[in-house]
Structure formats: C-alpha cells, structure tokens
Amino acid sequence: MVAYAQGFDQIAAGSKEYDWNLHPGDLATIWRGGCIIRAKFLNRIRDAYSENPELPSLLLAPYFRDAVENAVDSWRRVVATATTMGIPVPAFASSLSYYDALRAERLPAALTQGLRDFFGAHTYQRVDKEGTFHTLWSEDRTEIEA
What we know:
Blueprint: H1 2-18, H2 24-32, H3 41-51, H4 62-84, H5 90-103, H6 109-120, E1 124-125, E2 132-135, E3 143-145
Antiparallel strand pairs: 1-2, 2-3
Helix pairs in contact: 2-3
C-alpha cells in the first residue's frame, strides 16, 4: 500500500511540476484495465481519489490510513527480523522509512547538517535558537554563531 502511495505521490509531483494535468483516480482505472498491474486493489485507489480529488496522499484516505495503522507493528517486526537475520528486504524497509518520514514531526536532517558542518564548515541551524552556527569540531567543540 505504501509503495502505491509513494508512486502516486511521485506521479502527482511530476504532474504538478510539468503541468501534465493527470488525475490519479483515472490512472488507477486505466491500469486496472491494462495488462501489467490489473490488481483489484486499484479500485480502492480509484475510489479514494473519487471521494477526494485533492487528496494530498493516498495514505490519508480512511481505508489506506486504517489498513496501514493496523499493520504497522507487524510490518516493523518483519523488517526488524529480516534485517537481524541478514535477509534483504529493500522494498519493505524503504516503504517503512517513507511512511515514517511522512509522519515525523522532525526529520533526521540534523544529522546531515552536523556532518556537513564537521567535514566542510557548512554551518547548521538549531531548533531551540535563531541563527546559523558552526562548531569547532577539531578543537574544543565550541559552538560559534556564523
């Protein structure tokens, strides 16, 4: 479900960027009649976009939201167990990360900002204080306002 949601999010972003004027519900209907996907599940997608043509993410439609919320604990266990056993599950893990990123109040960009500052003095911003900062990582790790 999340992989479908991610795909439809990408299509919507492309449609907006390039003015394609695509309608996700129509795409689901077209694919349902095609030769590759044809999943009955596409009817649920069509219905979600019919109910709300401006749906910002498929995961916000009640059916999909509820289904994912009911499965997320098991999904996490599958990814954790597979990873612990050295079994690659890239689609499961990537979809879970995508789902978590959509729900996160703050994303792990702070780690990236810190690494960029450490390796190239690119500075960073803090959530508790206005301004741009740099840390003297190789010295006493004093933080200075940039």
